[in-house]
Amino acid sequence: MNEDHPMNDYVEGDPEDWVRIISVDGFTFLCKRKVANMSETIKNSLDEAGGFSEAGTRTYKSQERGIVVQKMIEYMSFKAHYSNVGPKEEIPVNEMMDRLPLEILLELMLAADYQEL
Amino acid sequence: MSGRRNNVRGPTSALTDFLREQNITATTVAARAATQNQPVAGPSTAQANHAFDNADNAQEARGSSRSRRRRTANRDYDSDDLDDPEAPVTKKRKANSSVAKDKAKKLTKKDDDHEDEDEDNDPYTLLSKMGANPRPANGSIEKCAECDKEFSVSQYTIAAANGPGYLCHSCAKKLGNDPFKKPTAPRKRTKAADKRNIVYFEERRFPTLVSLCINVVSTHIDDIEAFGDIGALNMEAISKAMSKKRSLNSENVNLFYGAGNTSLTLYDVTKLSPAALITLGHLNPNLTSLRLDFCGLISDEVINSWCTSLPNLVQLELLGPFLVRAPAWVAFFRSHPQLNTFLITQSPRFNLECLDALIDSSSKTLTRLGLREVGLLSDDFLEPIGLLSGHLTYLDISEPSISCSNTAVIKLLKKAGFTLTHLNLSGHIGLTDEVLQCGLLPHVNTLDHLMLSNLPLLTDEGVARFFSQWSNPPLTSVESSRNPALSSKSLTELLNHSGEGLQYLNINGWKDVGATALGNIATQARNLRSIDLGWCRQVDDFIMKSILDSCKSWLAEVKVWGCNKVEGKWVTSGTRTKAKVSGIERARTSF
Prior knowledge:
The structure holds 2 protein chains of 2 kinds. Chain A has helices spanning 33-36, 40-46, 54-57, 66-83, 93-98, 105-114; strands at residues 18-22, 28-32, 59-61. Chain A is α+β, with helices and mostly antiparallel strands. Chain B has 21 helices and 17 strands. Among the domains of chain B are: 1-134, no CATH class; 135-180, no CATH class; 207-366, Leucine-rich repeat, LRR (right-handed beta-alpha superhelix) (Alpha-Beta Horseshoe), CATH 3.80.10. In chain B, helix 2 packs across helix 3 (42-58). The A-B interface holds A 1, 3, 5-8, 49-53, 72, 75, 79, 82-83, 86-88, 90-91, 93, 96-97, 100, 102-103, 105-110, 112-113, 117 and B 192-193, 195-196, 198, 200, 206-210, 212-217, 220, 223, 226-228, 230, 234, 237-238, 240-242, 244, 541, 567-569, 571-572, 575-577, 586-587, 589-590. Chain A: Keywords: Nucleus.
């Protein structure tokens, strides 16, 4: 087999790219790829090497409602920022917890589980 | 301790060497000091101190030679440390108050061997203070400068901070100069690395959104109405999500209870105490079906309580109820004569008596029986199971401690096999092809799921022959892992027999199965949902590509652990699939 396309170094999207996440009720969210990559499922589907069709259009169609998607993206930005923070900084987890409204909590938990968040 | 010669022979400082060369010894300096009583230049002051002390010591009753030796040792130690600002200051006897004050300050982390001393910052004044208050002899009685108590002077007596005089042991300790105190270990600085990992929910991991949600659920468990009404299907998904990290506990499990519930499935109840499990029964009185995984804490008490609190229960599935003793099981069966499903995994205590009780009470209704990993399973058990003939559809007696024999199994299949749709005989290592030929072949014709893993005595020809002759309709799932003797013939006949119906195939461990037979999977088994080809060494990228292409509609999972030839090249050749392929070794780098 010709090895002109080595498997190891596949092209990953530029983390500063913008990607689109669409909720099931029609809301569109634009966010940076590095934020979207916090979710394993979104990362895999937008990953060009994975062979999924979403990779080309840089759009991910979520099966969740807009509110839920919004909260997830909020969490993903929180995670993206604080994952790289220095060792001495406190991560304000409780703040994030306070921002989860009870009404969508269970739906959010299921969505988070699916998204491997 | 005292008098120990310091055996360290290291490089001495230039100073020491110089002094030695010049023949400046303790005695010469002392003589000079005594006569002149004037400040002498720095280094030799140290010498003078030594010399003076030595002269002083000579008058003492005991320990003079000892102290001289110590002095010598100290001297080396001293001069070596002259340049080191942090060096522990050697302790020498000082007959001086101001020096004692500095001493008091500097007395930390020192060797017990050395007495308090003070490498005075001001060597000029040092010598002038000498001779003012010669230290009283060891053993003599002195009055304490602080508390006026009488005490006997020892090697460790410290001079008072202000004014002449010495301190008794207790006053010295109050100042913090306890010479008997063990040196404090230096406090370790918490490394930055340890500080970084904040332990909130899991150590060393950024808290996941799922865990955050679970925590909020737990805190607000009393406001269940606020969560909104979620259907039963979602409840199951939620219980799965919470069980993943073993987050289910006695508080948040209440989320799943309801007087109207008829079925309850909890995937990890490790953290539920027996009391909580009893409560489970009380709060869900209308349950007809109950499944609890990892229920190690279920005790006799719980089962006894369920006898009355769950009157409508007809389906019970428990993973891990190893604490329950035979009498409790018997009582439970007697109180539930209408059981139709009884599946347990892992119980060393479930014995023949229990089984008899079960069959006695529920023989008319029991359709599904599972006694997986039940330690006491034996041929005797198979007798009463035969009594279930006519309605038994699901039988799982896999992974016993001791294998059942061919005859017993064949007998059982003869009696009860004709209604079976699911059969699991994995792990009965004593079974041979005979079971297939004389047990399954003639008597079992309605099977959908067949599990025959880890039956090392099965042969390739035997299995092939069985599948070629069997009149059963195509199987839906076949699990035959860990049977290294089976190979291409078996696979070919299996595919011929069940190819159209197969949705789940596990031939992990069929190491010799050939590429042609494997290739047939793609052509004959298009409805596969999940396939495990682990350790089938002949699997390679071509076979993978054909499987992925042809089983496109349904395939969700492919496992190829141990298949070295698989490299994942089908992606670049354009095969797109939603199947999850796991087990590919890292692709070899090209040169």
